[in-house]
Amino acid sequence: MLRSPQRAEMFPDFLCIGAQKAGTTWLHDNLHRHPQVWLPPVKELHHLDHRPPGWRKRLFGKPAHLALARAHLKDTITAFALGRNSASDLAWATRFCLLPRNDRWYASLFPRPPGRITGEVCPGYARIPAEAVAHVRRLMPDTRIVYLLRDPVERTWSAAAMRFRKPGQGWSIETTDEGEIERQLTDPRTLAHSDYLRNLAAWRAHFPEERIFIGFFDLLKDDPHAFLGSILGFLGVDDGGRAIPSDVGRKRNPGRGETMPERYRCLLSRLLLDQVRALDTTFSNPYTRRWREEAERYV
After folding, report:
1. For 48, 123, 233, 258, which has the most beta carbons within 10 A of its beta carbon?
2. Distance between CA atoms of 299 and 156, rounded to whole angstroms?
């Protein structure tokens, strides 16, 4: 592991690798409030799934994660000037936004506060190739992996709805051209987020089963208290009543309840049926069984 001689940072103790639109924002928010967990002030650092950007991209690049880093630095400078945060907050934001990105830079973003573990939540990590997972294992061999799964049909629709949701502009998936919606739904990059078994195979090839937690979005909806408790137990921190917020069930980053028209449900069910069946064969629980039955009904 990389260590700075002046600092006590090291790589994170755990990673939540996804899936996108499967409860990662909910998990980040609840873990952020846990007294034994430290998370970066910005969700999704995107170091492990992107090539290091040059200084021009860091300062002017359009990718959302780079724009977010600049916005975070700007907000932190303002808050520091008003006395609302500390010099260490400003140092972290500056390092995150401006310094060259490499593995040493990534390690520098994770302090080692006494009595706390550190981690990152970034849904993009589920899809990194096997050689990138091997690199993660070399950097942080003892890290724990959390992977949250949602009905692939529902997840893909929710991701598409988010893609077409334009805050402040009144745009939504309901007002988008049907051809554009179908292109988004069938885009290989969109579908790859729902290819859980393929993604999981890359991580299982390099991390032992006991270091991988598979959680199901359905349980989050049914019993968020128990769901969070199971994740906390896996991470080895306090999972008792006091460690779980009273508003644990509150929705984070919710959609607008965009209803999936039957034609798109039929389309996605047909595209994802083999994957849904394989998921039910692999996990064989009431959730995956419902996913399979629903997909088969529409096909």
Report:
1. 123
2. 16
